[in-house]
Design a protein that fits this description.
Blueprint lengths: L5 E3 L9 E6 L10 H8 L7 E4 L7 E3 L4 E3 L4 E4 L5 E6 L3 E7 L4 E7 L1 H5 L2 H11 L7 E5 L9 E2 L12 E4 L2 E4 L1 H11 L7 E3 L14 H4 L6 E7 L1
Parallel strand pairs: 3-5, 3-7, 4-6, 10-14
Antiparallel strand pairs: 1-2, 2-15, 6-9, 7-15, 8-9, 8-10, 11-13, 12-13
The structure holds zinc ion (ZN).
Length: about 230
């Protein structure tokens, strides 16, 4: 039965050991306590959560123990029973699983991190643990989509033209396609990458959105772990 308090992304993975989910806006937001609670609802251990302090960097870290991490926006592990967590409110939560080598990665991919190379860095960290991009299943969770991700002209040069659309004098970027492109360039099969297709700004009933709600916006928490 589907719990209305979170979106269960586990079924997007071909491996039944993967548990992945993201909270919806009516899930209690009591950071960091909602992370163990979401882990529990997904059947993952609640006392083994990794909590990065995200600062829109391109930094990805290989983690081996639960607990808090300073200034890192992507985490990767091959340790048993470790639960990765991040928070998002328009940025793209990227869930990565290498089923052959039992490696997982969870990335907070905002536009700054993406143009600064966080996708390339996450691929590198997964490979450092013995992962092979050709084996990966990647899920892009709910985020701001091309319908709503408007940017100012002062940063348009930071994006390749193929991901930029101009509409009535305004500029929009397809950040999810840019992320998919970067993974494909790194050797991930395009058929191995799935987007849930949800736009956080459009789906006001379900998700928080910084672009829609501004400074008072809440956050969604995403977790990823292996049984
Ligand atoms: Zn939208």
């Amino acid at each position: 039965m589907d719990n209305p308090g979170f979106f269960d992304c586990s079924s997007f993975f071909e491996d039944e050991n993967v548990r992945a989910g993201i909270t919806k806006r009516h899930f209690p937001y009591i950071s960091p306590d909602d992370r163990p609670e979401l882990a529990r609802l997904l059947g993952l251990p609640t006392e083994r959560v990794v909590i990065p302090r995200q600062t829109h960097t391109n930094r990805v870290e290989i983690v081996r123990i639960p607990g808090r991490l300073p200034s890192v926006d992507g985490i990767v592990t091959n340790r048993e029973r470790l639960v990765l967590s991040i928070q998002v409110a328009d940025c793209v939560p990227v869930f990565i699983h290498d089923s052959t080598n039992r490696i997982i990665g969870l990335i907070h991919a905002g536009w700054r991190g993406v143009v600064d190379g966080i996708i390339r860095n996450s691929v590198r960290s997964m490979e450092e643990l013995g992962g092979d991009p050709a084996d990966w299943r990647i899920v892009l969770g709910p985020s701001i989509q091309k319908c709503c991700f408007q940017i100012g002209r002062e940063i348009v040069d930071r994006f390749e033209a193929q991901f930029v659309r101009r509409k009535e004098g305004e500029i929009f970027v397809d950040l999810q396609q840019l992320i998919i492109r970067q993974f494909v360039v790194a050797g991930v099969r395009e058929t191995g990458i799935i987007s849930t297709g949800q736009c956080t700004k459009c789906l006001a009933q379900d998700y928080h959105s910084y672009r829609r709600d501004g400074k008072q916006a809440g956050r969604m928490v995403a977790v990823l772990g292996l049984l």
